[in-house]
Amino acid sequence: MDSIVLDLQKEAMDSGSSISNLLRKSYVISKKLKIRDFEKWASQELNGYMSNLENIPDYREVRGSLQFLNPIYGWRPVIIENPELADIVSTNKISQPITEIEYLVESSNDHLVIQLPQNIQNQLSNWADGRPTKFQVSFGKSQAQQIIDSVRNIILEWSIQLEEDGILGEGVSFSKEEKREADKQNYTVNNFYGNTSGVQI
């Protein structure tokens, strides 16, 4: 019978495989092995981080250009002279489920947009002499693709580590020895992706 871990590894190496299917398989593996950190991570990637905004991973951070809606000319760039402030308002973390990010990458043009929260919209309107308008951040589609690639790499690294630790599974089942080995290891998601830095709105 095939190994679910090796199957996961093969699929993670295939750039054409669905990232959501990889996450579902990772969720099943981590659930059966009681690897809570990976189980929670896979679930949040599939369902989004909307209820857990403070814990959005760094690899979901994107940087773009702040724009405002001109009633005549459409979306126009906002010039902010303060570099620190410009960095804050042009940097954001994407909380949507990975399926939405996948869809945007496949269906959109070169640039994607993030609608800013209402409290940030109000603050920016106050800075713009109180004139009501809408604001958004436009960023390159390649940054959304990098989020997908980061998730794929995390799954690949994790599956390789499971194999090295002798945890392969048979079909979708794991032996008592494999479960004991998984319990001894420290499979923290943070161990499988590099740190990045930035400011979250």
User: How many β-strand runs?
Assistant: 6
Elements, N to C (H/E): HHHEEEHEHEHEHH
Number of domains: 2
Percent of residues in beta strands: 5-15%
Low-confidence residue ranges: 195-201
Shape: elongated
- Proportion of helical residues: 40-55%
Counted by DSSP, the helix tally is 8
- The span between the termini is 48 Å
Query: What's the main sheet like?
Result: 4 strands, antiparallel
Q: Average pLDDT across residues? A: 86
Given the helix and strand composition, which structural class is it?
alpha+beta
**Biggest β-sheet: strands ordered side by side in the sheet:** 3-2-6-5
Mind sketching the topology for me?
Elements lengths: L3 H10 L5 H14 L3 H12 L13 E3 L1 E6 L3 E4 L5 H7 L1 E3 L4 H10 L3 E5 L2 H10 L7 E6 H24 L11 H9 L17
Antiparallel strand pairs: 1-4, 2-3, 2-6, 5-6
Helix pairs in contact: 1-2, 1-7, 2-3, 2-7, 5-7
Based on the model shown, name its key terms.
2 domains; single chain; 8 helices; two-stranded antiparallel ribbon; disordered C terminus; 201 residues; alpha+beta; four-stranded antiparallel β-sheet
Short précis:
By secondary structure, the chain is of the alpha+beta class. Helices cover about 50% and strands about 15% of the residues. It has helices at about 5-15, 20-30, 35-45, 85-90, 100-105, 120-125, 140-165, 175-185, and strands spanning about 60-65, 65-70, 75, 90-95, 110-115, 135-140.
